[in-house]
Write a structure and sequence with these properties.
Elements (H helix, E strand, L loop, with lengths): L1 E4 L4 H13 L4 E4 L10 H6 L7 E3 L5 E3 L1 H11 L10 H18 L5 H8 L6 H25 L14 H13 L11 H10 L3 H4 L11
Parallel strand pairs: 1-2
Antiparallel strand pairs: 1-3, 3-4
Helix pairs in contact: 1-3, 1-7, 4-6, 4-7, 7-8
Length: 214
């Protein structure tokens, strides 16, 4: 398989963790977001939105959107499972994953931050305030969920890593982008993050360990 991504992309980070947990081999194809390679015609032919990641499977079929890719991998390579068996538990895990992937990440990603600078004219301090505000708001809710409903264990749901952890860990990396962001109010998130990073699948997926890291 080929994974089209960028080392700093948190969405690609999620898929790398999933592939690693499944024990699947893959080739990485770097799409340099800061050089706008995602807008080149060759890549748009693969991913019409011009976003990363995209996954090309062994048959040459292309899949886009990180959560859809991860669930495809979970259905085609079911062990170890990334979603629990009970429908209510699956809904909880998907809700936690989407709290990151749908509510925090889209308004804090590179193309939004670029737009804040040009054409809107905000300086770095304003961009940092924007970035941290939305992560803080999202983490406030996620922390309450993880600490309050009794279903988290070592990981977001029970004692095995799953879809929610695949989304949470890259978002914690993003939160560390600015030293001004304080993780102290989020002990449940920090505990789960630390537990995830003891696993090789998460450690090998971290941005600085990717072949296109700068």
């Amino acid at each position: 398989m080929k994974l089209y991504g960028y080392f700093r992309s948190s969405a690609a980070f999620r898929v790398r963790i999933a592939l690693n947990l499944k024990g699947l081999g893959y080739e990485q194809v770097s799409i340099h977001l800061r050089k706008n390679e995602q807008r080149q015609a060759a890549y748009l032919a693969l991913q019409p939105q011009g976003l990363v990641p995209a996954l090309e499977d062994d048959d040459g079929e292309i899949f886009i959107q990180s959560l859809a890719i991860i669930e495809y991998l979970d259905e085609t390579h079911p062990m170890p499972p990334l979603l629990p068996g009970h429908p209510a538990a699956r809904a909880r895990v998907r809700a936690l994953a989407q709290a990151v992937a749908c509510d925090i990440h889209p308004i804090d990603n590179l193309r939004v931050l670029r737009y804040l600078v040009k054409p809107l004219g905000h300086d770095e301090a304003a961009v940092e305030a924007w970035f941290n505000h939305w992560i803080r708001l999202g983490f406030d809710g996620i922390e309450r969920l993880l600490a309050g409903d009794g279903q988290a264990g070592k990981f977001c749901h029970g004692d095995t890593p799953g879809l929610a952890d695949l989304c949470l860990v890259p978002q914690v990396f993003n939160a560390q982008r600015y030293p001004s962001f304080d993780m102290t109010p989020y002990p449940a998130i920090r505990r789960i993050f630390d537990q995830c990073m003891t696993l090789d699948a998460f450690e090998r997926a971290r941005p600085e360990r990717q072949p296109d890291a700068e």
